[in-house]
UniProtKB/TrEMBL annotation:
Family the entry assigns: Belongs to the drug/metabolite transporter (DMT) superfamily. Small multidrug resistance (SMR) (TC 2.A.7.1) family. Gdx/SugE subfamily.
Membrane-crossing segments per the record: 27-47, 59-78
UniProt-recorded name of the protein: Guanidinium exporter
SUPFAM superfamilies reported for this sequence: Multidrug resistance efflux transporter EmrE (SSF103481)
InterPro entries: EmrE-like, Small_drug/metabolite_transptr, Small_multidrug_res
Higher taxonomy: Bacteria, Pseudomonadati, Pseudomonadota, Alphaproteobacteria, Acetobacterales
Keywords: Cell membrane, Membrane, Transmembrane, Transmembrane helix, Transport
The species this protein was found in: Belnapia mucosa
């Protein structure tokens, strides 16, 4: 269950990162509200998953989901570049997450 909660926390990290971009430096009300709400949910779920997962594993997976998810959202919704170097970097992050999961005792 902790892994499922951690994945949901990572997805909420993607939501707050995207909505923060849309808030234009917190100058737009509703994207700013979504950012703050998603941050609270994301941090809360991360904290809950850390009850049973090791700190290093939970935090690394959470930030990795946020990083790769935000990368994908940037490409799909914001027209950001998807060149070979950026795609390779994302693949390395995902590979690291898989190794972190496989090496975790929980």
């Amino acid at each position: 269950m902790a892994w499922f909660i951690l994945i949901i926390a990572g997805l909420f990290e993607v939501v707050w990162a995207f909505s923060m971009k849309l808030s234009e430096g917190f100058t737009r009300l509703w994207p700013s509200v979504v950012t703050m709400a998603a941050m609270l949910v994301s941090f809360g779920l991360l904290a809950w998953s850390m009850r049973s997962l090791p700190l290093g594993t939970a935090y690394t997976v959470w930030t990795g989901i946020g990083a790769v998810g935000s990368f994908v959202v940037g490409i799909v919704f914001l027209g950001e570049t998807a060149n070979a170097a950026r795609l390779s970097a994302a693949a390395l992050i995902v590979s690291g997450l898989v190794v972190m999961k496989l090496s975790s005792p929980s």
